[in-house]
Amino acid sequence: MAKFNLVVAIDGTAASGKGTISKKIAQNYSVPHLDTGLLYRFVGYKVLQGFDPISAANKLNMSELETLDLKTLKVSNAASEVAKIPLVRANLLEFQRSFAAQPGGAVLDGRDIGTVICPNADIKFFISASAEIRARRRYEELLGLGHSISLKKVLEDIQERDERDSNRKDSPLIPAVDAKKIDTSDMSIAEVYESVSRVIEAELKK
Ligand code: C5P
């Protein structure tokens, strides 16, 4: 039997650091973590291969997903295009909700976790940072993964996706009213984690 049930929703802009923070929370509190961006990346990848987005979302395959290179700019762009399609979102919804409903809880990060997927999450965060800083972070991450890419291209991708994600009709990128907002532009990962874990500790004491 789990000691507690903790559902943490972490939304935010592309490359804001939400993935890193989510993984740290999951590790520290021993709860599973789902990077929901990967689900949209999986569908985007399939569309680039010529598949229909709605049936690709319907046939989400986590074991296959783990074998694919989903971190390229081409795939991130395709992901944010398919993410505008309501039936793609609907087909991915149940998997995310069941993941969140595991005994003991879970950490999910994405764009609509606090607003649509887990509106009753115990804790919600909305993580952002300036586009330039996010582009620099993502650029360094991609270089580290061996991609050859320019900083300018990464910045353009981030700005384009922010715009598309924030302005789509279905489940746009917006903070939930009860989300704690954190701007990580001038913060180290350790500082962000400290701020986040203070909120979690306070919640667990309730
Ligand atoms: O988080 P990540 O950058 O990997 O997400 C890729 C794209 O997937 C985003 O730009 C967004 O369009 C879409 N997405 C979404 N809802 C989520 C997670 C990701 O629409 N919960």
Q: What does this 3D model show about the protein?
A:
- With 206 residues, the protein is of the alpha/beta class.
- The chain has ten helices and five strands, in the order βαβαααααβαβααβα.
- It has a five-stranded parallel sheet, sandwiched between helices.
- The two termini are 19 Å apart.
- Cytidine-5'-monophosphate (C5P) is lined by residues 14, 36-37, 40-41, 76, 79-80, 83, 110-112, 161, 165.
Ligands, ions, cofactors: cytidine-5'-monophosphate
How much strand content do the residues show?
5-15%
Average pLDDT, to the nearest integer?
Answer: 95
Annotation, overall tally of beta strands: 5
Q: What percent of the residues sit in helical stretches (DSSP H or I)?
A: 40-55%
Which structural class do you get from the secondary structure elements?
A: alpha/beta
Q: Order the strands across the largest sheet as they lie in space.
A: 2-3-1-4-5
Low-confidence stretches: none
Tell me the radius of gyration.
16 Å
The largest sheet is:
5 strands, parallel
- Element pattern in H and E: EHEHHHHHEHEHHEH
End-to-end distance: 19 Å
Shape: globular
Tell me which oligomeric state these chains represent.
single chain
Determine the number of helices (DSSP H or I, runs of at least 4 residues). Answer: 10
